[in-house]
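Folding Query — how this chain folds
Tokens — whole-number codes for backbone shape
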Amino acid sequence: MKGTVYKSTGSWYRVKSEDGSFYDCRIKGRFRIEGIKSTNPVAVGDEVLFQVLGEGDETVGQIHEILPRRNYLVRKSVKLSKQVHMIAANVDLVFMLITLENPRTYPEFIDRFLATAEAYGVPCILLFNKVDTLSEHLRDETKYMAALYRDIGYTCIGISATTGKNVEQVVELMEGKTCMFAGHSGVGKSTLINRIAPGLELKTSETSEQHKQGQHTTTFAEMYDLPFGARIIDTPGIKGFGLVDMEKEEIGDYFPEFFALKPGCRFHNCLHLDEPGCAVKEALEEGKVALSRYRSYVQMVTGDDDTYRMGPKEGS
């Protein structure tokens, strides 16, 4: 039978067959020894072939093949540095939720996520959430950041998952697509999904006042069918985001504004660090490239703080 993975717990997978039936499935042990260095060889969104074993209450599915993926999102496993964590597969559009307080999303995290989405072929839209609660200073900062990313080519929308501001724009973009919501815990992913599809009644939680970070309300990645022909993948909050399978020579290609300038560099293999005749460095000096983006790039190329977590390191 052919089906799509709707939920992954790491050991069990909830699979929806082509006739709309759901099955709890396990994977064959051989998947774990075929060179897949992932903490979860099967991801939400994967199309799989499986067989049903047993009868009645004893029915269980066994996944025996993962069909080719159109794309996927992956990051380094925080606890197992030599392995990766597959976030989701076969995604048409990912919405990255950003908040400038409670919790704060830093540019380094945004840029790592965007570079990874570019590398794996997943279109990304930035949603600046909680705009209804911002001070005048933070509203100005939000407008500045949104303008920065729009100039690069990314769609940016200011929203309020609580009040519904501009949520209809998000719904229009989602129609007919498999979408993913991503971001730190506490940025409002579950609140936004509940606003879009109230019938799902996803659990939400307040941001911790002590640490100004979100509390995890989504334990496992899970996909939901929505009434207007879309599917949404809700993911656990991402605290750290490590790069996977990127050579330092190619990282600049996943910064669209750097890639556009690259032909103007004196050397074809320019890393945009200390090389003479670098078009990116020249654009930076002229204010045509954002300093925050360049800092993120240098951090990624040099491997400083390889898995960027919430907030800068002490003393920075």
The helical segments are 107-119, 136-152, 167-174, 189-196, 248-251, 256-261, 279-285, 291-302.
